[in-house]
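Agenda item 2: pyridoxal-5'-phosphate complex prediction
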Amino acid sequence: MSCFNYIDGELHAEAVPVRRIAEQYGTPCYIYSRRALETALGDYQSALAGCDHLICYAVKANSSLAVLDTLARCGAGFDIVSVGELERVIAAGGDPARVVFSGVGKRADEMARALEAGIACFNLESAAELEVLARVAEQCGRRAPVSVRVNPDVDAKTHPYISTGLKENKFGVSVDEALRVYQRAAELEWIEVIGIDCHIGSQLTQVSPFIDALRRLLALVDQLAGLGITLHHLDLGGGLGVRYADETPPAVADYIAAVRAELGERPLKLVFEPGRSIAANAGILLTRVEYLKQTPEHNFALVDAAMNDLLRPSLYQVWMDIRNASEDEAGERASWDIVGPVCETGDFLGKQRELSVATGDLLAVFGAGAYGFAMSSNYNTRPRAAEVMVDGNQLHLAREREQLADLLRGEHRLPGQD
Ligand SMILES: Cc1ncc(COP(=O)(O)O)c(C=O)c1O
Ligand SMILES: N[C@@H](CCCC[NH3+])C(=O)O
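Presented output:
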C-alpha cells in the first residue's frame, strides 16, 4: 500500500496534494507519511506476533524526530550507531531500554552515555571494544549487556558498498573469533553476555542469505551453550530490501516466517534492526524544475534538489523512480537527465527518464524516505531541504528538528496513547 497516490492527476501525500506542501514550505522538500511508517512497522509486528521479539528501527535510515516519534509511539525499539542517534531517540520519546548500539568504532564517552541511559545491548564488533567497554562499565558502576556481532561470511548479493557480512568487510568478528570474545566476555565482572548479532548488508532481495547467516549464528549459539554460555536473544540485523525499480524483495511476512521456521522451538528472543524497509517508501523528495537545457546530446532538467539533498543516485549509481507530480497525459514525453545545481558532473537524481516536464513543474523522487535526508549535507553551502510529516490531512514541518521535540510530543498523540 502506498500513501503517495495520484488523485485526479495530482500527486497526494495521504490526503494532501503535494503542490500545497511545496507552496507552503518550498522545495526541495522531503515529505513523509505517518501512516506509511505505521503500516511498515505494523507488518513486522504482525509477522512476529506470538513470538518474543524486539523491532529496533535503524535510526541511520531516517533520524527525523517526527519519524522517531511516530515509531516510538507504535512501540518500536531503536538501533543506534552513535550517541547523537541516542540523543535523538531520547528527545523523540523513545525508550532507551529498547535501544541496541551497533557500530565498529564506539568511543568510550559514547559507551558511558549509553550505559547511563540504560540501553538494552551493546553489539560488540571487536575484542578490543570489549576491553574498553568493560573498563567504562566499571568506571560507571553499571554492568554492560552485550552481544557479539558475528560476521558470518555470507554473500548478501547486494551493492558492494552496502554488503557488510563478508570476511573482507570491516564489520563484526568471524565465527571463530566470536567464540574467543564470548569466552573472554564471560570472565569479565562488568560485562553481561546476553545475545548474538549480525547484519550482513542492506537492500537484500532474497531470503536465502539471511537464512545462511542465521544457521551459522545458531550453530554458534549451540556451541556456546555447550561451554556454559547461554544467550537470550538473537539479533539478525536489518537489510530487507525494497522495490526501487524492478527488484522483487520478499514480503516482510515471508521473510519473518522463514526466520521463525529456522529458529524452531529455541527459546531465543528475536531482534531485528530494519531501516530501509520501514522508511524508504514512507518518503518522497519533492523538487521543482528551474530550467530546461537542451543540447544535441542531452535534455537536462535542472531542478532545485541536488546530490547534497539525495546522494544515493550519485554515490551508488542506483535508480530511483522520478515522476511529475502532475500527471499530464497530454504533455509530450522526452528523455531527460534530472540534474541539480551542485558543481559536480556526478550531481544527478536520474538519467534518461521518459517524462513530460516544463519549467516550474514539481517532480517527486519516490522511495526517498530512507537514506535520503539522513545522508544529506550542506555541500556548496546549500541549506538542507525542508522535511514535512503528513498525518491524514494535517501537515507538520519537521525542519528545525531539535527545537520541535517537545512540540512533536504534544502534537502527535495516537488515540489511546496519552
Ligand atoms: C548494524 C546495522 N543494522 C541495521 C541497518 C539497517 O539496514 P537496512 O536499512 O538495510 O534495514 C544497518 C545498515 O545497513 C546496519 O549497519
Ligand atoms: N546508505 C545506503 C545504505 C547504508 C546502510 C548502512 N549500513 C543506501 O542508501 O542504500
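Discussion summary: The longest strand covers residues 283-294.
Owner for follow-up: CH.
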